[in-house]
């Protein structure tokens, strides 16, 4: 039982994913610091009359953070997501695709072409005329 678990953990793709996850989590802190220190002040400066709360709308008592719709934080979260995902793509996914291509494997490629079964409308292999369920003989109705 433990030998199977060890074999599972020692597969190339599991180790690669684990390393990528650790790098992504470490980089997440860097991107968060960038958005908190650079992007948030820039977005907050767009609406200076919000009692120091930033870009957004006050619904209740003036200056209360509890009733402030903070659009600046939302914009920062979107920028954070875009920067983070772009970094993951360019520094982890593209090099991984390149390494796997050199090994003769295709990862993150286009899906295999399919066509639709004329009877049940499910996706089938391009060379097939019907899916395996429609092509098999149907039991006689009793």
From TrEMBL:
Q: What name does the UniProt record give this protein?
A: Large-conductance mechanosensitive channel
SUPFAM superfamilies found in the cross-reference section? Gated mechanosensitive channel (SSF81330)
Q: Which Pfam family, an example, fits this chain?
A: MscL
Alphabetical UniProt keywords? Membrane, Transmembrane, Transmembrane helix
Give the source lineage, highest ranks first.
Bacteria, Bacillati, Actinomycetota, Actinomycetes, Mycobacteriales
The GO molecular function terms of this record are: mechanosensitive monoatomic ion channel activity
GO CC terms in record: membrane
Q: Where in the cell is it found?
A: Membrane
Superkingdom classification of source: Bacteria
**Residue ranges crossing the lipid bilayer per the database entry:** 71-96
Q: What is its main location?
A: membrane
Membrane topology designation:
Multi-pass membrane protein
